[in-house]
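Open question from group meeting: does this chain pack into something compact, or does most of it stay loose? Before anyone orders reagents, we agreed to write out a predicted structure and look at it together. Recording both the input and the output here so the notebook holds the full record.
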Amino acid sequence: PEFQGPGSSILSNAYGGFDIRIDYSATGLFSFTNAYTVHATVRDTSVNSNAAAASWTFTIRPPDTTPPTLHAVVPADDSADIPVSASISLDTRDNYGVDLASMTVQLNGVVIFSNSSFAPDFQGPGSSITANAYNGYTIAIDPLKDFTFGQTINLRVGMLDTSLNSTVRNVSFR
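Structure tokens returned:
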């Protein structure tokens, strides 16, 4: 059955003696940025009338069309003469949230980070993943082996946000 507006309820005895009541307090379509509350009560029909109740409040957000960003990379794009022992740091951001499991990092065509994990040769003691204040992550990649002096490093970073908007960015340094 459809909800009919303020105070509408659904009662059902479909779960072996339990009544389920859901109160719906909004009319019409949900509007963006409005807060909505769902109250649910579950009560058994035995003599002791045990019951449990809970409430959830949620807000409908507008559609997200903004892709995530690779905000900062260290060493910076086009840097030269980086130390051979350099680590790599990536700072990702999004208005609603970066999907860490979707993120991939390739170094000269070899995947060094995917599915929220570092490739074995890039699991140095300084490697870490930290949620940041910008709905994204700061990822530190500490290679176990040094780079060769003057070697050109081409990084390709790809990611999705929680709304499936995508970003791919290429960064090079040597």
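Observations to bring back to the group:
The longest strand covers residues 35-44.
Residues 38 and 82 are 55 Å apart (CA to CA).
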